[in-house]
Fold these 4 entries.
Entry 1:
Amino acid sequence: MIQGILGKKIGMTQIFSADGTVVPVTVIEAGGQVVQRKIKAKDGYDAVQLGFGVKKEKRVSKAMRGHFAKAGTPCFYRLVEVKCGADDDSKPGQAINCSGFVKAGDFVDVLGTSKGKGFMGSMRRHHFSGGAESHGSMHNRAPGSIGSSSDPSRVYKGMRMAGHMGFDKVTVQNLKVVEVKGEENILLVRGAVPGPINSVVLIKKALKKG
Amino acid sequence: MGIMHDVEKGFIRTDVPSFSAGDSLLVKVKIKEGDKERVQPFEGVVIKKRGSGPRAMFTVRKISYGVGVERIFPLNAPAVESITVLSRGKVRKSKIYYLRKLSGKAARIKEKRDSRP
């Protein structure tokens, strides 16, 4: 049994549950293939390498082309390794279906890359309160003091300042799987998932819920 | 949008009639009280429709004992038992908020006489 699968975020919508309440859901299209099975005796650990998103062969380096040719799969944009049990019988080339991984009612963790926000000030990036907007204040959106003077004579590491925000690896834990459509390989997960539409997300079994 | 359309398709009701702002409706809503369920009618004029797909909502306004009451319903909710169009109103806007400021004879809406499917 593998610990995760790859999917594409299709978007959010809302559906009605059996008792008539509205449920906000994210639609994820699972897919991809197994590219490699890592074995403890040979590689030192047990894992499955998954590929997602088919890429043109001419755009792939020769080394990677050989790797995909050995697996007998098309070339993929995204390769991810997920843990598996020693008795896992995944074969290279095997297609991934979400119905074998989760069922409705399960909980999953979803990993994605958050939307990039560019260079952001400290108010937006770290929720600083800023200064007064009026009454002659000239300290409007500036961060304020970033430390003491001659002692320590430097700015401490990790000081929260303006800078690049977003495009981080973000995990959302314990999302409930509302529906699994095995035929279409589609997954409906309650709540929001990090990243823009059409981004690749990794769906894992929930770490904190059995 | 193919996949999204397929997911939403199952949650869009096909048994609701087409109506627009200005129309008079009778909406029957299921209300849960403890473990019992009853149907409550709400009759009034549609003042707006918004959203598309399963998210579509509409607002119905009525005057109840001299007090204006507005209720917002989800168009596709299973709690809405039935929607009946009582009359088609002739209005020139899709959101007839001006009705809130009018009362009595001024708040009447001319009826549309042509037949729509």
Entry 2:
Amino acid sequence: MDAKIAQMLFSVIDELNQMRPTDDHLVKDLEMPLSGDSGILDSAGLINLIAVTEQKAAEELGRPLVLTDERTLSQVNQVFQTLGTLAEYIHLRLNEKNDG
Amino acid sequence: MDNKSLMCVLVSDFNLQNLAGYVTNDSHFPSVKAITAPFGQPVATLLNRELPCWQNTPDVAVIWTQPQSVAPAFKALLNYERVQLQTVLQQVDEYCALLVNMSEWVKYALVPSWVLPSYRSVFGILDMQTEIGLTNTIMRMNLRLAENLDKASNIYVLNTHDWIAQAGIQAFSPKLWYLGKIPFANEVFKAAARDIKAALRGMLGYARKLIIVDLDDTLWGGIVGDTGWENLVLGGHHHLGEAYADFQHALKSLQNRGILLAIVSKNEEQVALEAIRKHPEMVLKLDDFAGWRINWQDKVENIIDLMTELNLGPQSAVFIDDNPAERARVKESLSEILVPDWPDDPLFYPAALFSLRCFELPSLSQEDLDRTTMYLSENKRRKLKKTVSSLEEWLKRLAIRVHIEELHPANLQRATQLMNKTNQMNLSTRRMSEAELISWAQQEHHWLWTLRVSDKFGDAGLTGIVSLKIQDQRAQIVDFILSCRVLGRKIEETMLARAIHHAQALGIDNVYARYIPTPKNKPCLDFFKSPASRFQQQGDCFVRDGKQSFPIPEHIEIVLTQK
């Protein structure tokens, strides 16, 4: 599942780059900082990341994912610190659903 | 093609940042740099020319609003309050007046039509009732919007419903709306960006004018050389036959809008032509084709030959062939020709043709509608040329008549269209909107004439523009534009004669033309360098000084209409 999540997030990056200036493209690297002090995304970029990630999770993983709930937004800088932290969080959330 | 980026301003009551990204990143011609005006203030933005977004005269503005933000009465209707339709429409009129006023600040303005999320049809069967139904009201508002903006020559209403349909059930995004004031999913913006770019290509004169089609398994099912025309799959009560017939109907409908059709096919010419003439279900007749090359030669060579005959450049053409190998060969060798990927299944041919976003014209002139007839007349001229002994004899027998008249509202649309799409015989390649062109021509010491060319085979329509600017006792030929349809018939000399005669009548003998090179306008340079122009080259200028007259070619009859 981890590899699938990473792959899904890379397709999210492809999608987001279609809207970003060519000299400001996001890279497909799990270490890439997203949000917070060293983050690349502004608030509009973060909104698009959330919306596209939810859409791609449904399309590519076949799993509904909500990233606008209070739990996620209360730790937004941790969850969206890098692409890797986002992947770990998605893994956690999807496994919780499996457990339930 | 000119790679300079167009400046595009996006004005909206919602967040259009994503659309700006898609439009700017779209790699198709033309290059566009999109910026967003502060969102949430469309009316204030349309009222204030001093805002930073309007500085430096943007090329195009896209004004995309939600209906409730420009028509408060519609907002009340959304709350199911009682509202008179007339009040809503009056507010649409007021909004349109703002748009028309703003349109003077830009070359072109695009206004996407209004849409409502499908989930707002709460009351189902009441939705289409006048003054009650939201959909009924939105339809009337859009109709009023289109009717009002029809009067402005540089504003075009775009069909948002098409983008919504392309995006499907997820077109409206509550998530993006609540998080970022973005009402639509990104699929809607992608479709919008495609249409905006297609519209701009049309406005800049890069709409495709010619569709070159293959025959076997493209225009009909089967190989005519193997099966004979009697056994082709075309029409009748057969799903494939119906699809091929519909594809021909689709081509015919585009031809009715001025798109030329031509054939390039590997076949025995007589066998193929017999099929076209004799098959009872053929929708397209031989007269529907401006030309054809049906033989066993390489298709690339045939296309080049055909386009030379039709006086069209490769950027004008679309090539449709069922064979991927032929498509790849043409795509590789003639990169400016549009070679769309083509469905394997003929049932999708008509839809694939209509989905091409390359035929968009900013206006539809009589010349557009008569284009095929003009090319058939040109074939007759060529046949005549083969029977006479000299160029002079041919020109004399054509009985050419040139109507010269100044720019006025009735010829403005066609003159602007010619100015914006002529690449080869074009001295300065100025691209202007109707408003800009008439404004330039009305300035003191400026003159602009249009030329309509006809002969015994037909009327080529408004095909020439020459303009003159007088300053410091010198006359500058600013525009020298001639459609390739009438090149080589000494219309060029007629245009110079008109300009020089006018300057001399004003007592000015020093006439010059400044050639501004583009990748396409070398034919114009060649003409000015030739003895026929009687100009001397001085750097990038061509100069003529002296009192000697410039006679109109003998074989041309002039009809001059003065203001």
Entry 3:
Amino acid sequence: MSDKPVAEMSFEEALQALEGVVNRLERGDVPLEESIGLYERGAELKARCETKLKEAEEKVAAITLDANGNPTGTTPVEGM
Amino acid sequence: MVARAAAAVVAAEEEADMDLIDAPEPGQNAPEFTVSEISGAVKRTIEGAFGRIRVRGEVGRVFKARSGHLYYDIKDDNNVLACTTWKGQAARLSVIPEEGLEVIVTGKLTAFGAQSKYNLNVDEVTVAGEGALMAMLEKRKKALAAEGLFAAERKRPLPFLPEVIGVVTSPSGAVIRDILHRLRDRFPRKVLIWPVAVQGSACAPEVTRAIRGFNALSPGGALPRPDLIIVARGGGSIEDLWGFNEESVARAAAESDIPLISAVGHETDTTLIDYVSDKRAPTPTAAAELAVPVRLELLSWTDEQGARLTHAATRAIQQRRQRMQDMARGLPRPQALVETAAQRLDLWSARLDPALTGVAQKKRVALAERCASLRPAMLHARLDDAGRRLDDRAARLQPAALQRDIDRKSRELRQVSDRLAQIARTRTARLADRLAALERMRQSLGYTETLKRGYAVVRAGEDVITTSAEAAKAATLEIQFRDGRLDVVPGAANPAAPAPAKPKATKPVKKPPEQGSLF
């Protein structure tokens, strides 16, 4: 299990970590003290996953190009 | 002119041989051109007669000049047509001629007088027929495959959930709409659209630039750098899709650091970019499905994991509580733990008091035994004995031994001082002898001894006279001989009566200066 802070994890990392935590807890061979820590970490990971899932906002922009085809900026794209 | 005239003469003679009739010589009345005139006329004729034409043939050797102009041949089985495409025109060509490619070129036929050549100035090249196109594609595919650009190990995994998706496609049309719809259904994301032409000659350079452009964005810059690129185009003819078969596009896709999904045409259309992309989607919609997971599924998965988490934690505690209770039942009565010990304590403490009494009794008996022999008489006997031994030692302690020692030491002292005196006497005598010898030597070396050998010392008063000049100045002289002194007057015929000799011992003789200086 990585020691990366949960808040810095990508959705996928948090997902994998959560799965690992659940599996370990379900195996039931974790010492009690550690299992409490694991549970807390699991809850944190779940919250992270949910946050990332809730963050699913759509934003569509088209890149604007100059005469030479180099990007100059973006304009929002609506109604597609 | 001379040459022309000569040629005319020769021609005339030949004519005369064949026909003696004085027929007018052909060509003699023809107009005369300069080379430039005829070249210009040919050029005008060719350009006027043909205008803009299309020619089909196979591309022969191709030469791209440093100036950017293209020179190549179009040929069939028997003939060759020289073609040129100027730099400005070349940029607009949808197909760059490649050797062996069957093409239809369009342009104007013209002549190049400087080399007496005619050629076709081509401004459009299209591939002649699908067979030719496919042949070219196969050739490119082989070349890129040989470079390893299609290798499976080059393919990178797509990110599970990209934050930003870059889409390279036409900004208008169904393709981008389909992609956005499907993304919205599954998992809305930030999408950056890089608008490109998806067909025609601008397609390949623009798509190439778009793929490179997305890669050039720095993470966290003004424009967010995509985690995933989708290159998409709807279905079309092979010519329409041709831009995605261009080598530059395939290379840009292969070099992309950002994982890339290609979705060009329908499922049956496979373009070159599909071979080098990390994932090929059969349609733009499928590309969106490959790009993101389904959010709702993930949410329910997360919920499920949360439920399992809580359940597992709760169960872990319950299980432990159960075990604890089971163990607790197995614990014995606390009294049982101490009963045996208490009994043993009683037993031993009961034996403690008698044991002490017994020990004291035993010691008392032992003490009595020892004390039996302890009486004052014993002490007296030992004191008497010690007194006797003291008297004995005291008797032996007398001064006689000490006196003897003193006598012996004084004798030794006397002997040593006698020897010292003896040595001193001997040494004094020896020194006296040496002194006498030295005095004798002094006497023999002194000038008085010299007097004995007939020398004399002349003095004037107290001064010793060593020169006759000094002697002449003196009023009186005193001459010392071995046996005494005599006063004389210089220049006198007879010396004065000798003065009585002065006793040597009473007046110390002044030594001659020479001797004085020696000391």
Entry 4:
Amino acid sequence: MRPLRGRFKRVITSVAVVLAIVIAGTAVTATPASAHYFGLTKMDDSRVDFGSDEDVNDHFLFWNHFVHYQMTDQYDARTDLSGVEQCRHCWNDGTDIVWFAFPIPNASNGSRVLGDWSCRSFTLSGKCDRGRLRFNEGLTRAISGAAGFAITCHEIGHATGAEHYSDGGCMPASMNVNAPFTNVLSRHHIDHINSQY
Amino acid sequence: MRKWIAVAALVLLGGCAGPAGDDSAVAVSPYQTLTVPFDSLEDFVTERPIIVTGKVVAADDSAYEVPVDPAGEGNVAGEGAEIYGTVSFTVDSVIKGDVKPGSTLTIVYISGKWNKADKKGGRIAYTHEDMANVQRADAKLKSPAELGDTTFAIFAAPKPPTLPVGADGLYVAGIATVDGAGRLGFTGEPPFVAATTTAVKLADVKAAAG
């Protein structure tokens, strides 16, 4: 009996070790579900390095105005984030937000896209290390200042970790470009950012 | 003893492996767009050349890989390839467009990218608000078995030339579930401004399509 019990014990122990390894691996990569999603892809710290990779001067001059002032007036001044602007084309793989204008095709449902954000590189801890922020270049010199400020406030919000929500701030999912929503952060959004960084 | 450990490890890890090498780290991230909604259902229906109902028969969240131009705006040397997924529907009924019932319509979407050119660097898996009907929170597509008899309304257009997947016969589409009462269920923001707060029905789409 004793040799059999010993062998059984070793098999159980080995299976438990393998299971523990698999479960630990799953825990590292799994995504927790949340009704109000915020912060999973947030930047790695409160210092927001941002820079443009826009090649065309006119696109750069138009959009840089909005990006610069929204980062300064909304995110730097009203939250715990600190925006650090890099000169054009000076960004590197660790820059938090790299922005440029692009002829973004329509969305899958055919609707016109004003801007988009996606994570292009992540850290081993699962946070977004470099986000790509694009503005539809067809809007350059074609929209009002109010719309430009609204779009940039919105897209930078995604880079901080915000999802779409309608609370009076700049994060609704869609926008009438001729009657843009507010171009400032809501208190709700500010509180989320300050709790994360 | 070692044989037991090897067998157990192979069975467990083999069960987790996916077609895109899921044994590497995966970071799930939303792919977010700010859009201009159509002014009405009629405008939306006019813009879509193909509108059908159907059921999911196949789903592959890593059907294609497209290398990224390292010299392109926003890219760096060593950038990982983009990954595109597909969802195939068997067509039950045709509301608009040159499609036959019983045929298969496959839509394509960007499903993620490799973190670095070296795939050991892990993969980013994108979630899409407007695809939550067919996509799980971990960004993997639901299988046809999971979706069962769920009927979808598919508002499709041929894949635009700007979409860098070379394969032919693919479409892009907005999708909505159709419940037993014929009501459409979009996830995320509906693609049009509704005239009323009442749920839009498939009958409304048929009427708008004329």
